[in-house]
Design goal:
about 40% helix, about 300 residues, 12 helices, Inosine-uridine Nucleoside N-ribohydrolase, Chain A, alpha/beta
Length: about 300
Amino acid sequence: MTIEQRIKNLTSPMGKIDVVLDTDAYNEIDDQFAIAYMLKSTDKFNVKGICAAPFHNEKSESYADGMNKSYDEIIKLLGLMGRDDFNREVYHGSKKYLPDEKTPVESNAADFMAYLADEYTPENPLYIVAIGAITNVASAILINPRMIENCVVVWLGGNGRHIPVGSWEFNMIQDIPAARVVFGCGIPLVQLPCGGVVDHFTTTKYELEHWLRGKNVLCDYLVDNTIEAAESYAAGKPWSRVIWDVTAVAWLMNEGNRFMSDVLVPAQIPEADKHYSFDDRRHFIKYVYEVYRDALMEHLFETLAK
């Protein structure tokens, strides 16, 4: 890939594009907003598939359990949207994380992305939006290195480069080998950092009730799910809830920087001891450094309420 083509592929695309979403949908309440936002933006996205990503925390018994619960949550959301026809395009992902930077974890999701990539070129890439641990995507790259030329990865993962514990973020720290594969292999990569950047994209109970309540079954689920999660720890108190996964989808609709600003930077190196290493000789990635919260929230609510 030429430098000119790389820079073009690291620019928010014009027109309709083919895209795959990789999501740990059961882990949080924001993945559901991102899934619905993508599927309802039919003028922009031809969604080729949705992949379930692994996670392990208090909401899952293991990485595999987290992935399976995410798969089920994706199917549930499709039902609420009246899109049961899309169930066959949902893929089970990895049941564990990469053991090292050279060994892929086999899964239906990784195979799907690896083989789908051969239908694309640097001039007409497949876009992959990842909003969980990057295991499935890294495995797919290791299975089929041609993805490096034929795909663009947009990942919500890691913290801002200005934060001392840059790699100490849930999506990234779960699978550091996978993060190092994606940051190191040369695939066109867009990073939406969590801490210090897209954590500003928050909403509140009253905003959700006003703009989404009663619009459709899907919106009512998103409102109820978010309020229940937030009030499980903040009942009777003021709260706002981050729904940052939406920003990864929005980057692909960021013509004219209407939702966020970004910059080309040398790819940092995620380290297991919570920080990034830097080397200015490395290839460029696109780094989002600011989100225009109100403009994006308005577009999100309008899209979901259709």
